[in-house]
Amino acid sequence: MKLTIEPLLFELSKPGRSGVELPACDVPVLSISDLLPSEGLRSTLPLPELSEPEVIRHYTHLSQLNYSTDSGFYPLGSCTMKYNPKLNEEVARLPGFARVHPDLPDTAAQGTLEVLYSMQEILAEIGGMDTVSLQPAAGAHGELLGLMLIKAYHDDHGQGQRCLVLVPEAAHGTNPASAARCGYTTVTIKSDGRGRVDMAHLRTLLTENQENVAGLMLTNPNTLGLFEDDIAEICAMIHTAGGLVYCDGANMNALVGRARPGDMGFDVMHFNLHKTFSSPHGGGGPGSGPVGIKSILEPYLPVPQVVKTDGGYRRDYDRPKSIGRIHGYYGSFLCILRAYAYILYYGRERLANIAENAVLNANYIRVQLQNSFDVAYNELCMHECVFTAKRQQRERGVRALDIAKRLMDFGFHPPTIYFPLLVPEALMIEPTETESMETLDSFISAMRQIASEIETDPAIVLSAPHETVVHKLDEATAARKPVLRWREQHK
Ligand SMILES: *Cc1c(COP(=O)(O)O)cnc(C)c1O
Description:
Shape: globular
Number of domains: 2
Number of helices: 18
Strand content: 5-15%
Largest sheet: 7 strands, mixed
Bound molecules: pyridoxal-5'-phosphate
Strand order of the largest sheet: 1-7-6-5-4-2-3
Number of strands: 13
Distance between the termini: 26 Å
CATH class of the largest domain: Alpha Beta
């Protein structure tokens, strides 16, 4: 059955209908106006009036209109929308974990603390770091923490004047935003002709700002899906200048089990557990963005850290130089637990399979589609590949946005578009390792068909999507006048 949104299906309210029956009031009835002043009272409360089955069907219907990694291929570049194994969910629902109260004393929460302690150790090993804080609730939150640690380090070493953070042009928007939030001024480093950090520009920036560079934030592989092969030299240059190097580890799916940011020279990094280690994400969370550090930053870590004692585990708050708290209680515990289950399922020996297959799948797509769409930087890529529709736009007036919309007609979630910003008409495809050859092939054949439609019948692409519940949206109005909740006047 084809699902549709029609006003009649959406607006179900009927006056007097209800899904609840309240017992009769058995306390002395006072008039509400005896309790509250009349200015504080409203005469009507317009809420939708529906029976229970109508409410259930309404939300079930909406959920069926949604698209998820459980329903299909989701190659949204940079977001690592891999399949989330149901085993993780079972573990996260074990009552001993799911129902543990965060105010329990440490002695009564030893299992939970053991998971947290083990994750600190496991992630430190995966990242090549000395210690990990599990507190941040997202990648961006991890960036903020990492920069706060860098700042605390410089302040503690009499280097409080270091006010600049260098960020490459290709960086995710959260990087400069986190630096600004932390009180830093960001300086953009150009990309070179190979899509990597422009070393000559970096050298100039460092010479010009010797005393003022607090650090550099770098994503490796970068957002073009390319490995920054000058990484050792970049880290050495920043260290010589007295700065620290931050790794945006959102792209760890390309490296996990194979290469470690700590070995490359990074001092601090964040992990996106919800991406690399598979917690359902999108729609705002909950996520988890633990931060790994080299020991020089350890004194400043937020509290609490989970530590091992002779008798078990406890939360340590006794850290005089700590930057303080950045999250309530333990961080996003159930998200951390899902990632823990996922990592243990693979084990030390097989973790590298994730990165190997993620990279293989991305290169398969790159090579299979390179005759249909131009690859922004056509060389061996890591876990994602970036195409540009610049030629299609120039010759046929078809933009990346139109291609993304047309893909929905084939039942696929579109790739990321218009990011990274330095690629015009960018289409950023991250297949992840969880997809079969058949899925990749059917995506490739859809993309090839779109490429040939652009040549023979661009109108069908320009007016897409045709098969979805709602067709082309007026995105400007949707952004300027969003309708985010039910209101009576929509009747
Ligand atoms: C996803 C992502 C982030 C931000 O992570 P959130 O968990 O969404 O806050 C930062 N950098 C890169 C490269 C990313 O892909």
